[in-house]
Amino acid sequence: MISIPCEEHRLENGLRIVLSPEPSVPIVAVNLWYDVGSRNEGRGQTGLAHLFEHMMFQGSRHVAGNQHFELLEGVGGSANASTWFDRTNYYETLPAHHLELALWLEADRMGWMLPALTAEKLENQRDVVKNERRQRYDNQPYGDWDERMLAMVYPPGHPYRHPVIGSLEDIDGFALADLESFFRAYYAPDNAVLTLCGGFESRRALEWIRRYFGDIPPGAGARMIPGDTDAERENPVDPGQTVEAEVPLARVYAGMRVPTFDDPAFYAADVAGDILGRGRASRLHRSLVLERRLAKDVAAHVFPLMTGAAMMVVQATGNLGIDPGELAAAVVEQIDALSSVSSREVARAVAMAETAILGQLEVVARRADLLSMFATQFGDPGRISTELDRLRAVTPAAVETLAGERLGPENRAILTYVPRASA
Amino acid sequence: MSPARFRRTPPEPGPVAPFAVPGVHAASLASGLEVRTARRPGVPLVTALLVMDAGEATVDGPQAGLAVLAARALHGGTVRRSAVELACALEDMGTHLATSTGWDSTVVSLTCAADRFSSALRLLSEVVLTPGYPGEEVERTREQQLGGIRQRRVYPAQLATAAAAHFFFADGTTYGRPMAGTERTVAGLERTHVAAFAGSRYMPRGAALVVAGDVTEAEVTDLATECFGGWRGRAAPVEATAGPRFGERRIVIVHRPGAVQSELRIGHASVPRATPDFFPLIVLNSVLGGAFTSRLNLNLREDKGFTYGVSSRFLLRRAGGMFRIATAVATEVTAAAVREVLAETKALVADGPTPAEVRGARDYLAGIFPLRMEATAQVASGIARAFVHGLPANYHARYRERVRGVTVDDVARAARRRLHPDALTVVVAGDADRVAPELESLGPVEVHHDF
Which chain B residue has the Cα nearest residue A293? Predict the structure, then answer.
């Protein structure tokens, strides 16, 4: 495994900094994680973290409305952001000699976003976000699967029970005051990690970071994860739901609560997911696609979540005309069969993960995002170079134990989409 | 607190860091197979990609979908290995085979750790040179393809994209067909067709092996000779057709009762990739709809809030191309959004771009180029695209220079010659009952209930 250079610093205002210089590279990635996501939203506030992310591109005290993108695209850079359950990230990749521009832009909105916030901008982005929700959820076959699955897997009161995009009702209800208090609490140097990766020289970059971020005050406002993150310990999942939809092919989702990302057992869950549904040699593919011809495609994925419980999702899309009940039973059968796994299957999952991790390290933007993630969620960006070791340490027995403890019927939600007769 | 003076204006750039475009080493084997290698030390990964003159355009209309099926059915195994044995052999090495078919080529590729490259490439060659195509695997793959065709109808974005191809190009043209075929054509495809297609189109002459990553040219040449040295044959050239369907504006609604959004595809047939206008066209596109700060996105998203995003593209292929604007808008603003798109296109043709816009678009395209050449898979795909269009191995070395050479006049001229605002075909996948009445003020409307 290759070793990624990485040094850590911290400003007096609490901003954590990760530098991963490779001076010979002609591009640089700037990546900023704010430790806030949809898990921080209270009742009636679903979608606030994500709408707020949109507002961060609407200008700040010294940056006019569309100037963020204009300046970055004008120098050949790309920029974006994303909101997730546990965090919100902002990132730019640009030619290395424009690094200072990206720092200037990020600092201005971290320190001085509120003076530029207007009701008109809020109305515009509210419409944009509602269209994003329509495009991804409401006008999309199976588009509401995660909204349904989250509510089946996580009990009432749990911060992961609602999807990041939020409900149209809540999105409609936000006022400027909601955005202002959200900004004051969460958008502050002491709630963020700033990572630079690629073509720069550390000493110079630190001078710029001190200059632009150094006098931004720490946050003022309570940070919280509302609700009950331990709720799942007492509450079983909702075992099953069937939805009739305008789709020609049936689809089955199985959702299971698994150990959080910071639990050593998470890696056994990750490997279990790969053995089940990653690649054509995986069990679901071999059994459901090749041998039984029930499914057109299969997949399994573990969401690396931090609060209470993470989630494994297994998915199978049926072939034309198959019995959806038989498809669901076949998925469950394969999950149950994880009570016995071979060392070859574990080794294969690790080999596939190794190539995937190397693929992420090739791209400065991905490398920067991983460094920010490990710094924010583990306090240790150096984990980027040892992540594969944790996967390699997973044994067949660990996967079997995980399956026995976490993937059984009492912890399993099955969501089945059945084609309406007319579709 | 009063912010310091340095906050008021953006900082100036530092000295430009040199960017070396990956050098490409080209060689050919006696069989005619071209080998293009880009050495990228650093992360120990290698991408190998075999690009063959076996695109969907080489298939006759009644067999539409055959090139797609033949490529997908390669996963069915080889004469020596079953589907499961093949998958296990690849995944034990931490890799998997990807197949993809476009109009102009079929590509079989893999990315693997550098120390497993030779074994992985041997497997890739075994798959392409000696496919097993067992009957039940071909049949199963065909069933999946049919499922995908049925499924396409319920995904509004896919439906609109397929309808755009159909309505932009004339009946009977190659590019007017659905890429993966229709239920009727695919249902008729048998193992014998698949084997005959591979036997006549998977040929070394006209194909290239592209390798990018942590490997030397000498290693690649030796290995290519070992793996592909005995491969012989040539795929006969096939000419695709690409004439337009309409000569004037049409509005076509593909009815989706109750849809909360309309998926819009607005455009027309266009020139082939070999056009001398290529560089002016990509700058033009960047001004209109190729970037976040393009005219269309600033208007429809950032000003009006009609959409989550809008983009435009020139999709230029060997025998012709298309210009296409794509967006999804709320049902109630469908006609308003179409009106804005038509007006923006018309204004750009009539008035041309501003010097600042052209400068911004050139700097954007030239600056972003290194960001698109980072991963071995990106480098290999770029080299393969150049090969497909008959461009030299060192094509990318001059890319940024040529982008920077585009003038305001070049872009204005390209807009006048290559954008036809009065002949745009407007495809709407949405609720016809709600959107048709207002759209009628913009041009003749036809509604299709069963596309």
Answer: B140
